């Protein structure tokens, strides 16, 4: 039996100023259903696409059925969500002003599936030639665009709605929340907490950088992904996908001169060259680097019959930060991309 004053800290509620769930030991639950309904409508109503083949947009989120909850036990966040969505699209094909409509159904957006496993079915209304042509146009890019929106929802529920679920401990210190909402994300989130790990590395390297001369170092990496070059290009440049595999706040404007920021601003820069599905060139820096010091990242994609080879060259790296930069690509980009989107293969390094 514990001596007086040495009780189990799980139950010493008076040691927290608010006397609430000390050390996050007790199970707490938050209903995310209402928030999720609004978020899913917001995301999908913003979905539109236009090319030389025509243009279309989501006109109405016809039906959303399902539920979502977030649970906290011992500082661990567990996500449960299951959604069935029905969307109405409207658009035109090039050479015709007549609008056609159809439906998009997403029956299995859930914590059991990664975004790449979400089913997306496109059905045209009417049997005219142009209605069918628009349907095929929507299917061509719309399936992946819908999966991107699902990825954005997953990222947002993890970064936006779960805020405040993990309370500070009695001494006011926060606990690094770990999510294990679904089995496919569990190992990833337990072993590689992106924000905390990268921040820890950045603190160590920034201390090393003091009073050191900045030199130019080059890193060369090669990685195989079991996916097409266009899918990989989108994963590396589209904001929703960056958020999904880094589980962090990201910004990306994939245009010449457009800015990007990943991992809550730990890495940022701008795009200097973009060749769709083939090449990405960026001015790239860690926020702790000396002012105005940027490296140049060049990513080339070489699509094979059943995979895509990524070749990365990063030049102009400060000599004190070479190890973090090289390890970061492998630990926080290549590996998580494979796990999140199902592009897995063995690392070639």
Shape: globular
Describe the biggest sheet?
7 strands, mixed
- Let me know the CATH homologous superfamily of the largest domain: START domain
**Level-2 CATH architecture of the largest domain:** 2-Layer Sandwich
Q: What is the structural class?
A: alpha+beta
H/E element order? EHEEEEEHEHHEHHEEEEEEH
Determine the mean pLDDT.
Answer: 79
Number of strand elements: 14
How many domain modules? 2
Relative helix content: 25-40%
List the helices and strands and how they pair.
Elements: E1 28-31, H1 33-45, E2 48-51, E3 54-73, E4 76-93, E5 100-110, E6 121-124, H2 129-161, E7 178-179, H3 183-191, H4 194-209, E8 217-225, H5 229-237, H6 239-246, E9 251-252, E10 259-262, E11 267-275, E12 279-286, E13 295-303, E14 308-317, H7 322-341
Parallel strand pairs: 4-7
Antiparallel strand pairs: 1-3, 2-3, 3-4, 4-5, 5-6, 8-14, 9-10, 10-11, 11-12, 12-13, 13-14
Helix pairs in contact: 1-2, 2-6, 5-6
Structure description:
This protein has 349 residues and is α+β, with helices and mostly antiparallel strands. The protein has two domains: 28-161, Activator of Hsp90 ATPase Aha1, N-terminal domain (Bactericidal permeability-increasing protein, domain 1, Super Roll); 192-341, Alpha-D-Glucose-1,6-Bisphosphate, Chain A, domain 4 (2-Layer Sandwich), CATH 3.30.530. It has seven helices and 14 strands. The protein has helices spanning 33-45, 129-161, 183-191, 194-209, 229-237, 239-246, 322-341; strands spanning 28-31, 48-51, 54-73, 76-93, 100-110, 121-124, 178-179, 217-225, 251-252, 259-262, 267-275, 279-286, 295-303, 308-317. The radius of gyration is 23 Å and the shape is globular. The N and C termini lie far apart (55 Å). 32% of the residues are buried. Residues 1-27, 164-197, 202-211 and 345-349 have low confidence and may be disordered.
